[in-house]
Design brief:
heterodimer; A: alpha/beta; five-stranded mixed β-sheet; two-stranded antiparallel ribbon; 15% strand; B: alpha+beta; five-stranded antiparallel β-sheet; 23% strand; Thioredoxin-like_sf (chain A); AhpC/TSA (chain A)
Chain lengths: 208, 696
């Protein structure tokens, strides 16, 4: 009887593991040290962006949802735009991605997205990439807004994770936070190794 | 971490004054600060109406709307833990204590936190006539969408001779206090951590627990990682076999193990009613796990070549030698044609290969089933050992000419096809405890490799074992070099009985180690019974003969079931109970880890009663006064990992070293996390060399 019980349990475990594993197969991830997943997305202005377009150049990816308090923390304070402005000024590409599905929080139609880009004073290299089917977000394993990735000119991910080391929603903490993205980009530009290449991405869940 | 270091006492006093002042100016405002609230959350104090002089555990009680949740210290894949920023206190304030959380699957993510309500607790010790606290709070409440909340709460209660709680508040406090994890100690923690390892498989981390005291494991406890930067919050994959539970966590992509030199991590474990915290568990990394031996990058053909070489060397081992000599002896007998020799050779080879294939299949099937076993396991079974004792005893008696049966057995073994096949089977079984160095590495690899490759290694071993004999049969030229049959054969046969007697004695000793002193008695009585029955059979008439033969059968059946019974009686962990020689500790992963962290050198002797090489090394090297003094002088932590019984923990430790046989001698120099493996044949000078290089 025990054996039978164990067998049934084992079967359930196996089935359970498969069910858990199945979405994981769909949910890939951009991993520091590995090649960045391909993507092909249309931005709010109708232009298509592929990973291949950025070969030989640095690229920062940022996941965005205008209603997320953590996005508001970094946009309301001007912190994110300042970073965008600083690094696009150094010929680093910066793409801001919206993976919210239609009907979910943060979803924007192209026209709305252009307005939000305007009102948020977005300084990215393109108006928002509209990934409403979530394909790009899932390929990268984007979990939160903001979730940040840095891709080097060889097409490898060199940083994945949070924007900084303070997961408070309070904009007042930004001044005292260590910005992982800026640190990684500055180190790379100076030819140094990146000290922190991975961190727990804090924020709101991406609304796939 | 989240509670800020409190300013000095002068600051408290002035702050206290300020608090009094504010309270006096606006009582209503101070009372309003008794609580805080935001969207979907109401926060209030969980504190006594009146404090006593002693330390009191109080808390922030969060009442959360249905469907919404707040967070644990590690919030999981998204979200954030609440923050409690104490800006003033008239007393000592401890760290925030976090009740053990639940997993909250939120769409594609998993968060760690609390639904409905929770109390974040901390201890305070008053040192003023009133207990005053001023705290800035920040929290995040989420359903799918998240809403941050901010608040400012103050507490002002009288301090008198005795604490007075509202009963319902005290009950709430106690309910959550019971969920605060205790630091796990061997006394209070019902499991034992066998290992935490970042496997060869990138992106996972495994934690293995065993139930202490053979405790039942109806449902495996829930485990939550403390470090959200290293592990995702997704429920780990749980595999349970016997009293062992293996949790496989998913790592945050690219997250490094920190600190790089000796990475550690921590967990909270909850059985639903109680919780324990394990801090700074050492993470074994893949590079530590597979030191000198085989790793996956070695090409398969090299492994198979090593397996063939290892198998060939087995022919020279004392356990195999007697069996092969019986066989060769048979082939040298008069009237054996070249054709028969070829046939014998082929059949012997087939016997060896089929047995290896079957054993390989069995091992792989068991491996697939999750059973942790290893090579030599057939000698961990008392009935199998007793059966071998009888077999060798009968063979030895017949070699000595005590009984004619020997000639028939010889005829059987020497001339019939089945005989050659059986010899092959026998050769494999008795060769097991004599695994040579090559065989150890190859078998170690076999336990780790994919099924097809592992099977190839088994077959390789078989080919190696069979090869010399088969060659001898295929090329009669080699056989003709052997002397012609003659009276010397009788002498040789009698002489060959002695290695068999020696084997019987050794197997009796193994039996004794397996089932205790009764093993000797049982084994000897069965041997006596068999000899007596044989003698009777020789001297009795027809029915008497039949009776004698039936007695032999009865003795054997009784003996085997007796051995089985004795072993089951001792099913308790024998290895642990078995006292080790002075200074040697039984295998305990945690103790070894502690010794390594202390910077102590660690020497592990992986041994088993049925391993002759192990016993020889023990007597000639390890247990000598000279070596003992050397170990003592260098304060080495000595571990004797006894693998006589099926001990999955030691089997796994061996597998991590890339080995699946004993002896293995692992030396961890002080401060080193990866071991050096010593040769299987030890010499005192090798131990001396360990310390000589150290002083340089």
């Amino acid at each position: 009887m025990n054996i039978k019980k164990f067998g049934a349990k084992h079967l359930l475990n196996t089935v359970g593991a498969f069910l858990i594993a199945a979405p994981a197969l769909v949910m890939a991830a951009a991993t520091p040290g590995e090649k960045a997943p391909e993507f092909s997305e249309v931005d709010a202005a109708g232009k298509t962006h592929n990973l291949a377009d950025y070969k030989g150049q640095w690229l920062v990816l940022e996941w965005f949802n205008k209603d997320c308090p953590y996005v508001k923390k970094h946009y309301g304070s001007g912190n994110m735009q300042a970073l965008q402005e600083k690094y696009t000024g150094q010929d680093i590409n910066w793409l801001t991605v919206i993976s919210s599905a239609k009907g979910k929080q943060g979803y924007l139609e192209p026209a709305q997205a252009l307005e939000v880009a305007e009102s948020h004073n977005l300084h990215a290299s393109a108006p928002f990439l509209l990934d409403s089917d979530g394909s790009m977000g899932r390929a990268y394993g984007a979990k939160t807004t903001p979730h940040m990735f840095i891709i080097n000119p060889e097409g490898q991910v060199v940083y994945a994770g949070a924007i900084d080391d303070n997961d408070s929603a309070n904009p007042a903490v930004i001044a005292d936070s260590a910005n992982y993205v800026a640190a990684a980009l500055d180190a790379s530009m100076a030819g140094d190794a990146i000290a922190v290449a991975s961190s727990r991405a804090y924020g709101c869940s991406v609304k796939y | 971490m989240l509670t800020r270091t409190l300013p000095n006492k002068t600051f408290y006093r002035s702050l206290l004054w300020l608090v009094y002042f504010c309270a006096a100016v606006s009582v209503s405002q101070a009372q309003a600060q008794d609580t805080a609230s935001g969207d979907h959350v109401r926060v209030r104090w969980l504190a006594p109406e009146q404090f006593g002089p002693a330390t009191e555990t109080i808390g922030f009680y969060f009442d959360v709307d249905p469907g919404w949740h707040v967070y644990w210290r590690n919030a999981g894949d998204s979200g954030a833990a609440p923050r409690f920023d104490f800006v003033g206190a008239s007393g000592e304030v401890g760290e925030i204590q976090w009740p053990s959380p639940v997993r909250l699957p939120i769409e594609h993510l998993t968060n760690l936190g609390y639904e409905d309500d929770v109390a974040y607790l901390f201890s305070v010790t008053p040192d003023a006539p009133r207990m005053e606290l001023v705290v800035n709070l920040e929290w995040l409440v989420c359903k799918v969408d998240c809403i941050p909340g901010y608040g400012n709460m103050s507490l002002s209660r009288e301090v008198a001779d005795k604490a007075q709680w509202l009963p319902q508040d005290l009950a709430l406090r106690d309910r959550f206090a019971a969920q605060i994890p205790d630091a796990a100690t061997p006394d209070n923690f019902p499991w034992a951590v066998q290992r935490v390892s970042a496997g060869a498989e990138q992106g996972t981390l495994q934690l293995e627990l065993t139930a202490a005291n053979g405790g039942s494991l109806v449902s495996p406890p829930e485990i939550f990682p403390l470090d959200g930067g290293l592990l995702t919050a997704k429920a780990p994959q749980v595999e349970q076999s016997g009293n062992t539970i293996l949790y496989t966590f998913e790592r945050v992509p690219g997250a490094p193990l920190l600190p790089a030199a000796s990475p550690t991590t921590g967990f909270v474990i909850s059985d639903g009613t109680r919780a324990w915290q394990l801090d700074n568990l050492e993470i074994q990394t893949a590079s530590v796990s597979v030191p000198l031996a085989v790793d996956g990058s070695q090409p398969l053909w090299l492994l198979i070549l090593a397996a063939i070489a290892g198998g060939a060397i087995l022919n020279l081992m004392p356990c195999v030698f007697p069996v092969l000599s019986i066989k060769l002896f048979g082939l040298m007998g008069p009237g054996t044609s070249a054709q028969e020799r070829v046939k014998s050779g082929v059949l012997y080879g087939a016997g060896v290969l089929v047995t290896f294939a079957l054993l390989g299949g069995l091992l792989l099937a068991l491996r697939a089933g999750g059973a942790a076993i290893g090579w030599g396991f057939q000698l961990q079974s008392a009935p199998v050992v007793l059966a071998l004792i009888l077999l060798f005893w009968l063979m030895a008696l017949s070699f000595s000419g005590v009984y004619e049966f020997g000639h028939r057995l010889m005829n059987l073994a020497g001339h019939s096809r089945g005989g050659s096949f059986a010899t092959g089977v026998l050769a494999v079984f008795v060769a097991a405890p004599c695994t040579g160095p090559f065989m150890g590495a190859a078998l170690g690899a076999a336990t780790l490799l994919p099924t097809a490759s592992a099977m190839a290694i088994f077959i390789g071993l078989g080919i190696g074992l069979a090869l010399p004999f088969v060659l001898l049969c295929l090329f009669p030229v080699l056989l003709q070099r052997l002397p012609q049959p003659g009276p010397w054969m009788e002498t040789l046969r009698q002489f060959l009985a002695f290695p068999l007697y020696a084997t019987v004695i050794w197997l009796l000793w193994v039996l004794g180690r397996l089932v205790g002193e009764d093993g000797w008695l049982l084994g000897s009585l069965v041997m006596l019974g068999v000899v007596l029955a044989l003698w009777l059979a020789q001297h009795l008439q027809r029915f008497g003969k039949l009776f004698a033969w039936l007695s032999v059968l009865a003795v054997i059946v009784l003996g085997l079931s007796g051995a089985n019974f004795l072993q089951e009686q001792r099913a308790q962990p024998v290895a642990a109970a078995r006292t080790t020689a002075e200074g040697w500790q039984p295998y305990d992963r945690i103790a070894i880890g502690e010794a390594l962290t202390r910077g102590q050198g660690v020497f592990i002797d992986y041994t088993a009663a049925w391993c002759i090489t192990c016993q020889v090394n023990k007597k000639l090297v390890l247990d000598t006064d000279e070596v003992a003094a050397l170990f003592a002088k260098n304060k080495v932590y000595l571990v004797r990992a006894d693998w006589t019984d099926q001990n999955p923990v030691i089997t796994r430790a061996l597998a991590e070293l890339g080995r699946n046989s004993v002896p293995v001698y692992a030396w961890y120099a002080p401060g080193e996390k990866s071991p050096v493996l010593l040769p299987q044949i030890l010499q005192t000078s090798m131990i001396e060399a360990l310390f000589a290089s150290e002083t340089e």
